[in-house]
């Protein structure tokens, strides 16, 4: 029930209850009816406020879900034999890039949720199954971080050292930290699209299902 409908209901029903009560209705009955009406109005408004309380977090989560799915589809589309591929000798290969973004996202999102960081595997994960599993673990942690926040909680300050580049201030909001994680994820995804193109594979964002 919208706030407008609550107002219309009040102005149409309340005057009749007060000014033209049925003959058989006692003062007690009228008071009980009005109490029920105001209780319904209060509950309706409370529901509306609750529905709108996480608008900032919900808007921030949507671009995360897009890049989250693109990264996973990218990892799945690249053949296992090409995980060691690097476009030029001086840069990381495909598996190293995946390990980087999965590990970074896991670290950031566990930090936002106040959880201890999961130690990164040593030696680093390098096979396709290992990296897809790590990417899914990081994605689940970031989904949980977004879902745990209300708009008010998203504005709480935490260490600004959860994910670079580091601002000069020692703290920043949880929402800013998650936004930076999404920015970094998009940066790495765009970087890695080149790896797929050089192998004749269309990146997921250019071939939506």
General description of the model:
With 209 residues, the protein is mainly alpha-helical. It folds into two domains: 3-51; 55-206, Four Helix Bundle (Hemerythrin (Met), subunit A). The protein has seven helices and two strands. The protein has helices at residues 3-19, 27-51, 55-77, 94-112, 128-147, 151-154, 174-198; strands spanning 157-159, 171-173. The chain has a two-stranded antiparallel sheet. The protein is elongated, with a radius of gyration of 26 Å. The two termini are 37 Å apart.
In brief:
This protein has seven helices and two strands. With 209 residues, the chain is mostly helical.
Give the helix/strand layout.
Elements: H1 3-19, H2 27-51, H3 55-77, H4 94-112, H5 128-147, H6 151-154, E1 157-159, E2 171-173, H7 174-198
Antiparallel strand pairs: 1-2
Helix pairs in contact: 1-2, 3-5, 3-7, 4-5, 4-7
């Amino acid at each position: 029930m919208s706030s407008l409908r609550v107002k219309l209901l009040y102005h149409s029903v309340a005057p009749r209850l007060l000014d033209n009560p049925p003959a058989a209705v006692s003062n007690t009955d009228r008071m009980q009816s009005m109490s029920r009406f105001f209780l319904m109005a209060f509950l309706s408004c409370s529901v509306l406020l609750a529905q709108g309380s996480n608008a900032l977090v919900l808007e921030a989560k949507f671009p995360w879900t897009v890049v989250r799915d693109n990264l996973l589809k990218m990892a799945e589309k690249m053949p296992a034999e090409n995980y060691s591929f690097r476009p030029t000798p001086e840069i990381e290969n495909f598996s190293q890039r995946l390990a980087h973004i999965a590990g970074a996202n896991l670290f950031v999102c566990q930090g936002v949720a106040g959880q201890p960081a999961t130690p990164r595997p040593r030696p680093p994960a390098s096979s396709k199954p290992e990296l897809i599993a790590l990417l899914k673990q990081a994605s689940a942690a970031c989904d949980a971080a977004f879902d745990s926040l209300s708009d008010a909680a998203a504005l709480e300050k935490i260490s600004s050292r959860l994910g670079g580049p580091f601002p000069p201030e020692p703290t920043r909001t949880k929402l800013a930290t998650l936004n930076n994680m999404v920015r970094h994820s998009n940066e790495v995804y765009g970087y890695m699209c080149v790896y797929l193109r050089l192998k004749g594979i269309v990146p997921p964002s250019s071939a939506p299902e």
